[in-house]
Amino acid sequence: MMELKEKTVRKNYIYRGKILNLRCDDALLPDGNPCQREIVEHSGGAAVLCIVEEKVALVKQYRYAYGEEIYEIPAGKLEKGEDPVKAAIRELSEETGLLAEKMNHLFTLYPSPGYTDEKIYIYKAEGIRQGKEHLDEGEFLNVELIPLSQAYGMIDRGEIRDAKTVAALFYFRNRIQ
Amino acid sequence: MMELKEKTVRKNYIYRGKILNLRCDDALLPDGNPCQREIVEHSGGAAVLCIVEEKVALVKQYRYAYGEEIYEIPAGKLEKGEDPVKAAIRELSEETGLLAEKMNHLFTLYPSPGYTDEKIYIYKAEGIRQGKEHLDEGEFLNVELIPLSQAYGMIDRGEIRDAKTVAALFYFRNRIQ
């Protein structure tokens, strides 16, 4: 098997921001040749598959990067070093008003390993009851409870494209068959 | 329904790089309040689910951002404005040496809509035959043909975490049931 490991020579920060940092590191390829690696540092996210009576809770949110409103499962950014379970409980509650007794870890996703270190921890909410929605300041979204069969159709028609949402819905569909 | 659209006031480029650009835009929230949006511009990617005799072609690659070797379906970055079908055929051939007669579009993923405009176009390779691997300069990876049942187990155990790979494998598992 080919040796694959790359070595960091020097980390170079270009930008330190609110939701991400950017580095352009000097590194060495496995054959010892120099290379540069553009890396987006992100503290990670927690996302929640929340299913109530065969309906999935989706938030519709304007995503500035795409200039579109898109559907996603409730999710949010981790505070630095935060336990993703705590973040999952908080984000579900803030965005949808739903409270979960327990979060079961389903899997963890690497959204775009070519340039970011972000990890998305995906949970299934258990023991769900109604609480009260309380969005962050500057957060605007609409919550919809969508029948699962309809949500699968939305993936097929390209109306749901968010990676964590597609993966979580497919995962659940496999589990129950 | 709540009004969700945000408006761009001014695009501010912070970095223009090889695989990504970074902007920090001045924008307006739906309620008219100012905000800033950190956006990673990326030209998009094409990825290929390639299945030969109940085995899936996976590449094992060192991903600098994570400091790990991870499994992914063959994939690569689009040249600016490139047809993703062309990129899918090229990347499959370069990385695995496999040639596809046809690429069927399965779905398109938004990997991390909170900060990037990257779109990943996912195809299934059809009419596969053996060619010759010819990696890009500076590209180091190992190709493995892994039985599908084993690949699903690797997702369950957290050994496959790449979002496009998880989504493509789950998609295929749903389709054939």
Structure report:
The structure is a homodimer of 177-residue chains. Chain A is α+β, with helices and mostly antiparallel strands. In chain A, 20% of the residues lie in helices and 44% in strands. Chain A is built from three helices and twelve strands; from the N terminus they run E-E-E-E-E-E-E-E-E-H-E-E-E-H-H. In chain A, strand 7 and strand 8 form a beta hairpin. The radius of gyration of chain A is 19 Å and the shape is elongated. The interface between A and B is large, with 72 and 72 residues.
Keyword list:
four-stranded antiparallel β-sheet, alpha+beta, 20% helix, homodimer, 177 residues
Largest interface, C-beta within 8 A: A-B, 72 and 72 residues
N-to-C series of helices and strands of chain A: EEEEEEEEEHEEEHH
Radius of gyration of chain A: 19 Å
Globally, the shape of chain A reads elongated
Average pLDDT level of chain A: 94
Number of strands of chain A: 12
The proportion of strand residues of chain A reads 35-45%
Oligomer: homodimer
What are the segments of chain A in which pLDDT stays under 50 over at least 5 consecutive residues? none
Main β-sheet description of chain A: 4 strands, antiparallel
Structural class of chain A: alpha+beta
- Relative helix content of chain A: 10-25%
Number of helices of chain A: 3
Terminal residue distance of chain A = 38 Å
